[in-house]
Amino acid sequence: MSRRKPGFGKQLADLHRWNGWIVLLLAVTGLLLPWDVVRGWLDGHFRNPVKQLHIILGVLSAVILFLYIPLMKKHLKQIKKRTKQKGNLGFMVILLVGWLLSGIILWQIRRFPPQWANGAIIAHDLLTWIGVPYIIFHSLTRLKWMKKPERRSIKSSQAEDVIPTRPNHEIAAHSNVSYTERSPWINRRQFLKWSVGAALTVSVAPSFFRWMTTSFGGTITNVTGTTKDIADDANLMLPNPTPLPDSVNVIGGGAKGYFRVYSVTPLPTFDSKTWKFSIDGLVDIPSAWNWESFIKMARTVQVSDFHCVTGWSVYKNTWEGIPLSVMLKQAGLKPSAKFVKFYSGDGVYTDTLTLEQADMEDVLVAVLHDGKPIHRDYGGPVRLIVPKMYAYKSVKWLNRIELIDKDHIGYWEERGYDTDAWVKT
């Protein structure tokens, strides 16, 4: 006995239901990944599986979209005269296609130039900020209790088809049917829809504004999600380094774009009275500096781009600091030294470079960004800069360099990131 093929209506309903659940899970996993509080909780090898789940859900969403394509012509014919439904369908298709295309670029980030990834993450975020509240509003306002029509003021079931053609008082006088005045200008369903919309606007608008200022404006976002000016630094590092003329004048540079502040550990703070920097391990001359002696070291200026593996970029940064190759040369390397290990002042974050990578002329131990001390939220007072690699190799809050003979698996590499983080050029 052969099974009957599901009807058109059931196929549409099934696709709509599956798409709803997939989009819900996409929204949950997508919002968890950049959320600082959750990033800390996901630490311990959970973040990468959540990211992989998000990618799998995105692929399933694409499958649902492709399954819908053969049904689209008939569906459009069915809703030809339903303006609201056509508008909703068009918006959802644009939303899903936009998510899919930008998501593919972010998923395969190493195959695309940084400019593509930077545009993709802005598009992906913008679609999320617009799409998720819309989907929530659309879902809530289509619940049965929201769609239930107003109770008729005519109580008799026989009177439901009666169209009053006489004044209300005449109908009441000549009929057993009770009649009340017409509904007010806004009914219950409209009131609930407006209330849901207002609640979503109030809850989403402040975060959306912060995202807009972070992506397109001149503020940064800290771990608590509030905005503050870059000059408001938590570190107490005195005196400030005296910038070189090229750094002050920003020759060929001046950051274009805005940093997104990610941290899975509490942001550390530093005081020049207690801060120390050291280079040790397999070196001939181990050295240690306090803040005053460190900022007296000879520095150079370079202009380079900064690329995060999550997709965003900041172009033409002017960094000032000590070339790593110079520091290693001054320390003197023992023959057994094969790798350079970097330690972060948060006590958690570490990473490594090979000697060949560390010897690249643009690898810098930086103390100034665009002529100013590096902000704590950007990895200051001192951070590593490796322009040709994604930024997780540029260790923030750098305070120790160690020469070692065996490779070390860094913090992010333990959690699924590639050891060689080359940016596609």
Automatic annotation (TrEMBL):
User: Could you tell me the superkingdom of the organism this chain comes from?
Assistant: Bacteria
Q: Which UniProt keywords apply?
A: Membrane, Transmembrane, Transmembrane helix
- The residues covered by the Oxidoreductase molybdopterin-binding domain are 266-412
Per the UniProt record, one Pfam family is Oxidored_molyb
One GO term of the cellular component aspect?
A: membrane
Instruction: List all membrane-crossing ranges.
Output: 21-41, 53-69, 89-109, 121-141, 191-212
* A GO biological process held by the record: respiratory electron transport chain
**Entry-linked PANTHER family:** OXIDOREDUCTASE MOLYBDOPTERIN-BINDING DOMAIN-CONTAINING PROTEIN, PROTEIN-METHIONINE-SULFOXIDE REDUCTASE
In its UniProt entry, what is this protein called? DMSO/TMAO reductase YedYZ molybdopterin-dependent catalytic subunit
Taxonomic lineage is: Bacteria, Bacillati, Bacillota, Bacilli, Bacillales
